[in-house]
Each structure stands twice: as C-alpha cells, then as structure tokens.
Amino acid sequence: MKRILVTGARGQLGGRLLALQDLVDVPIVGVGSDELDITDRGAVDAWVEPGSVVVNCAAYTAVDAAESDEETAAAVNATGPRNLASACARAGSRLIHVSTDYVFAGDRAVPYETDDPTDPQTVYGRTKLAGELAIREVLPDAQIVRTAWVYTGVGNDFVATMLRLERDRDTVQVVTDQVGSPTYSADLAAGLLELARTGGGGATTLHATNSGTATWFDLARAVFEGVGADPARVRPCSSAEFVRPAPRPAYSALSPASWVAAGLTPLRPWQDALGDALARLE
Length: 282
Description:
Layout: E1 3-7, H1 12-18, E2 28-31, H2 41-47, E3 52-56, H3 63-66, H4 70-91, E4 94-100, H5 123-138, E5 143-147, E6 150-151, H6 158-168, E7 172-175, E8 179-180, E9 183-184, H7 185-198, E10 205-207, E11 214-215, H8 216-226, E12 234-237, H9 257-261, H10 270-281
C-alpha cells in the first residue's frame, strides 16, 4: 500500500480519516468534491494510483432532497462509485466503499446480516444500492462497508442538532418508533483504517456500527443527559407526527457478525462512544 486516498474528505467521516494520519506510515490524501468530482471518470482515473487504497466516503446524503433530485443522487451514489471501481480495477488498487442501512426495507426486528435481502424504500437507498451493484459488476473484490446513524456532533447531524435544541428550547419532541445503531464517526473512521491496513481477510461486504441499538428518542435523551441537561425535556412522539418526503426505516440495526468474522476490532457500545464524543466537544 503506497497511499490511502479518501474521497468525500470534507465530510464528517472523511475528515475523521484524515485525522488518523499519525497511525499509518503511508500518506492519507483527502479530496473533497471541489477537488475531485467522482462523477467525472477522467478525473477519477487521474487520482487513482497503482498500489493505493481508495476509501470512498463521498455520497449524496440529503435523504429528503433525493426524493425530488434522483438524477443528482444517482450520479453521486451510483455513477461515482462505478467510476472509482473502474479506476481501481485498471490501477490494481483496492476500493473500500461506504454504504448505508437504507439499502434494507427496515421492516424487521433483528439486526440485518450482510446477506439479507435488500429492499430500499427511498431514492437515497435505491441509489446507494445501485452504487453497490455497480461496484460488484466492475470490481467484485471491492469491500463495501454499510453503516448507519453516523454523527460527529458538529454541523447538522442528529447529535449536533440535539445539542443546539438543548440550548434553544425548553423541550424537544423526538420519535420513539425508529430503531438503529448510533455510530460515532471517529470510531467508524478507525475501523475503516484498520480494514485498509489489514484487508479484513478479504471479506467483501461488511457491517460496521457502534454496538447496541437505540431509538432516536433514546439517543436524544442520552445527549441531554451527557451535557448535564434534564433528559425529561425530550418528549416522545411517533413518526406519523413528523411526516417527511422520504420514509425512515422503522428498524435498521446492522449485525456486527461480518466485521468480527473478518478479524476486525468490534466497535464499542454506542453509549460509550457518545460519551467520548460529547467530552471531546467540550
């Protein structure tokens, strides 16, 4: 491995990967969309060098906006990954592609395994699945890592939003009927770096989230409690009270079995990760 190329490096996950440079003895090079448009095949070819590992964190993640902008979502989430896979195939480089829990229907009550049937219910989910399939067609041994509920606590992610609302409002309503695995971007980035370094035993589809499950309501209360606020200020509500253009999965927890089987370090419980994230923000 001569270098690690991180696409989508200006996002919450890509940025965390760049911060891990001291842990490896090869350069970690990060590019944002202003430096590399992954939908431009020629530009992708120019960036992917032989002997590198490409970690694709670039994605169109505006779940609601995608419902009325499928063309753009498909370009970034499907055409872009195909371009990266093609470039890696020509260069003899590895590709690690970050995907999502939204490729599943979200209609079960046990964590999804990597080989469970996919059935995305949103444009975002369909375009992300299209990206997975395009990669498999071009580069079968690429490694696809699905994750879920990723946060940093900065910007507009869920944890950052709860921190802002805690300061601005007396109470906040949060849904109790959506279940998933909150995932701290720093933990996920460390896991991806381990995968880049070790190869993960050649596993081609993996699930990586912090362990355990929660509802958004649970997570919001944990954020309030973590900053010394009264968690009772978070009030429960149902998804029906917050209708959005794109339906959210009712249950989208991902099983860690594939990650463990690949010999990779399990990500810690989500409660511990959240506590660390809040402490770092302070």
